[in-house]
Amino acid sequence: MTQALPPVLGTIGWTERTGGVLTRRERFALARPLSRGHRDIVLGHLALAARRHRGRHAHLDPTALSAPDSTTARDAAAAAHDLLSPAVLQHSHRAYAWGAALAGVDGVDFDRELLYVASMFHDTGLPSGIRDVDFTVRSAALLRLFADRHGLSAAQREVMTNAIALHHTPGVTLEAGPEAYLLSAGAGVDVFGLRAGDIPDAVRRRVVHEHPRLGFKREFTRLWRAEARQVPRGRAAYLRRYAATDLTIRLAPFRG
């Protein structure tokens, strides 16, 4: 009999099996992508300051960032409105918009409705209410309830819950699927400024105008600290310790 491989670090299978608690070996495995992320954040901030960033000459159709026009998407936005604070709700909208923008920049094809719904739900479990269980477990559970009510398939639920579980794992690539890649990238733009300079300047201004930040940095730092206390050997605590998230969030190239 062939033995099943263990779930990949950060996926929904891994997160639900382990609660998101990292082993020593897994912490070492995250060190390289985390260091690359640090480097890219610093270089990106410098490029923006020097006006030499990639997005200064880029062009992108603003309609490519629009939310999908479907009942499922509208209901997901309504559900997020009921579950999230105003600052985190607007972050969820921006995470989708940044992800869609980077898809245009990178030439990535993706399912807009699945990315949008995953974006609306990705932080609904933050911070975790259960000791040593990552917040994305609850976010994924809430999304499954929503998906069941809207008749979404098991395959669609898997794509979205996997994107949610992976989104705060350093180094998510397209191999994880376009929706997981873009949700992680979009959240990275909004929280840390990672790849913010790859997005056209006019698009950055428009997204923040349409979805204001409302003191997001302060609120999200508080939520991240609470998550790190709940899961002291989880990814939030790991990032807070080794990525200095309190500082990195504060230095993101956005006001508020």
From TrEMBL:
> Which domain of life does this protein belong to?
Bacteria
Pfam families in the record: HD
Q: Spell out the InterPro entries in the cross-references.
A: HD_domain
* The HD domain, residue ranges: 88-192
**Protein name from the UniProt record:** Phosphohydrolase
Specify the species: Nocardioides panacihumi
Cite the source lineage: Bacteria, Bacillati, Actinomycetota, Actinomycetes, Propionibacteriales
